Request: fold
Amino acid sequence: MNPTIDNVSVEEIEGLLCQIEEIKAARIVVGPGRGIEEIHILASSGKGPKQISRDIESMLMAQFGLPVNHRKISIAQLGSAEHRVPRARLKLDSVRHEVDDRRARVAVTLRHGETDYEGLAEGVASRVGRLRLVASAALAAVERIIAGNEAFALEDITAMALGRDTVVVASVALLDSSGDETYVGCAIVKDDEREAIVRAVLDAVNRRLELLITS
Reply:
């Protein structure tokens, strides 16, 4: 059963979580019964994700008596991508976006070595729909690169304010015979939000790609 928040606002809990030194932004998703379903965290790389998760669990229990399963907590760490193995890096070549009436079509091209791989996605041309289409097209390109050795599914994609910047956070699930595992990545929006979406997706899956891609 999800812990419920009856006597406190979501904004109050998010503000409290942001008092943890490493946490830069927090977003809580509640269900119809006011139960906490997801906690999304954007953090610096001062502590490891497990320690940050434990800090969150301890604070929520101490302040509000809310027991939260660590599996509900997704943590994206700024700067963590710099320490990953560079040979697994995929380069963003282009993002193309077309809208026809109410439908949108997105093509994302990634480069690995000297080869380009294109992923496509099509759907409703709403604001949220366009965010998801770009992320889905990026994952489709990744799956072409790894030749079907793994299956990725987009769980969530969102843009949030962080100081004077906007940050895109992507949550991606890896599906295999043993179940599923969630990876979270983020990227700061610079000139093009669509490119930031792709970079956030790549940040989420790069750790897994290190095991799958060889130069």
About this structure: The first strand starts at residue 23 and ends at 30.
